[in-house]
Amino acid sequence: MSSRTVIRGGLVVTASDEIHADVLIEDGRVAALAATGTPAAEAFTAERSEMGAPPPEGWGRVIDASGKYVIPGGVDGHTHMEMPFGGTYAADTFETGTRAAAWGGTTTVVDFAIQSVGRSLRSGLDAWHAKAEGNCAIDYAFHMIVSDVNEKTLKEMDLLVEEGVTSFKQFMAYPGVFYSDDGQILRAMQRAAENGGLIMMHAENGIAIDVLVEQALARGETDPRFHGEVRKALLEAEATHRAIRLAQVAGAPLYVVHVSATEAVAELTRARDEGLPVFGETCPQYLFLSTDNLAEPGFEGAKYVCSTPLRPREHQAALWRGLRTNDLQVVSTDHCPFCFSGQKELGRGDFSKIPNGMPGVENRMDLLHQAVVDGHISRRRWIEIACATPARMFGLYPKKGTIAPGADADIVVYDPQAEQVISAETHHMNVDYSAYEGRRITGRVETVLSRGEPVVTEREYTGRKGHGVYTPRATCQYLN
Ligand code: URP
Ligand code: ZN
Ligand code: ZN
Ligand code: ZN
């Protein structure tokens, strides 16, 4: 028989409730919750405390969470471990990236397997399984990037949905790499409407952006900040609008990834007001950083090059508002780290050659807790956008994303009073800088359980490579 754990005395926070409760974990799952101090809660440890006798061998452990929050492990629905991109590879492997995720209170990642042009979805998915299997500290699942829409690909989408890869990312950006034209997008959406898959869209008009890139470079505008200037908010909004209408024509739901611009949020709001099943994700970098970072001198701005790009600070208000009104439902990281040294530097003298992507898988839960402290969102909304909704959106609920009987015991004991300063010196991501260097955060992960196993124990790493398992997904559970 495997271990039993009781988490005692904390404030259990889920997307729907806040209760002072003890949590009983058996065989890796939540077995029961009971209000702290009640006979039902005392019974969780009765065997152990009887007559003051020592606990029977193998009884398990008691975690004291008094004064702490007990929250579901984070679900990061958007990561790119070891992603080949921009002539190099994202610097975190599944081993280092999932370990860093655990340190930051995230216990599930949904990473993007990639179909190469001319290859099958299957071969791309197999390659990602091979990268991840046996290497992860926490559980993981896959979306599929569709780069080559054809008859065979469309048939393969059905098979993937059946085996638990239930979402497909398409790109309106990056012509010649991942780009799909409107016809290819419509076809994939029609297929998703039939097979229950969810189309995730990188919504930027890449054809127009490439023209602006060429013109900027011809004018000698080569610094990182021009990355933000050519990838215009209007071209994000235009693509968002087009994706929404294509999905409407296809009768398919749509999830727009990494929304950064006020004008794009407005398109989502309009569609949702019309009653369309359209969803939006944003990321911490858009909520906390801005074009001021892209303009940092001495090529430092390259650290903040990602797409969609960081926007002028004024856009942040629309994103926070969208998160409060539920026009944006999810905050994921789009974790895609490239070291400053040797990787971001590929784009010195030509911003278009800077690998696109930023690190953040370790920082998301803390940054969003800071947003609670700062009054942008409520405590329960924090858990909703970072745990429960991504789990439901991607078919992992209620196994992941909540604390309830039967759920996987993916649980974080979070100290809401602890003070920390984010730094590359102390983070666990395999990247030589932090996008949030020096930022003060109130709140810190103390202990992390993945299926009942301690991965982080009072700020010490107790996890192991290979503990994390592949987790097939149901279709989107946010629609009904
Ligand atoms: O710049 C980014 N976002 N890199 C990762 C790939 C993507 O488009 O999500
Ligand atoms: Zn309290
Ligand atoms: Zn993207
Ligand atoms: Zn991404």
From TrEMBL:
Enzyme Commission identifier(s): 3.5.2.2
InterPro entries: Amidohydro-rel (IPR006680), Hydantoinase/dihydroPyrase (IPR011778), Metal-dep_hydrolase_composite (IPR011059), Metal_Hydrolase (IPR032466), Metallo-dep_Hydrolases_sf (IPR050378)
Pfam families, A to Z: Amidohydro_1 (PF01979)
Keyword Metal-binding annotated: yes
Keyword Metal-binding set for record: yes
Gene Ontology annotations for the cellular component aspect, listed alphabetically: cytosol
Keywords, sorted A to Z: Hydrolase, Metal-binding
Cofactor: Zn(2+)
Residue intervals of the Amidohydrolase-related domain: 69-452
PTM sites of type N6-carboxylysine: 169
PTM field: Carbamylation allows a single lysine to coordinate two divalent metal cations.
SUPFAM superfamilies per the UniProt record, alphabetical: Composite domain of metallo-dependent hydrolases, Metallo-dependent hydrolases
GO molecular function: dihydropyrimidinase activity; metal ion binding
Family: Belongs to the metallo-dependent hydrolases superfamily. Hydantoinase/dihydropyrimidinase family.
Name the record gives this protein: Dihydropyrimidinase
Organism the protein comes from: Streptomyces coelicoflavus
Gene name of this polypeptide: hydA
